[in-house]
Design brief:
Elements (H helix, E strand, L loop, with lengths): L1 H34 L5 H9 L11
Length: 60
């Protein structure tokens, strides 16, 4: 009976863990395969808009 409980707990932890990570894994593969060059699109656009701005704050 104890072995059954241990097996059941291990199986349930594996299923819950796999289900929790499935979205992250799918997103990773989707970005690598289908994202290609558009991964840094927003970062590059933000950098191009901020070119030439004066630095504000911080120590002199």
């Amino acid at each position: 009976m104890g072995n059954f409980v241990i097996d059941f707990i291990l199986l349930s932890l594996c299923i819950i863990g796999l289900t929790a990570l499935m979205g992250t894994i799918t997103n990773l593969f989707g970005m690598k395969i289908f994202g290609r060059g558009s991964v840094d699109k927003f970062k590059l656009k933000s950098s191009s808009v901020q070119t030439g701005w004066k630095k504000v704050g911080g120590k002199k």
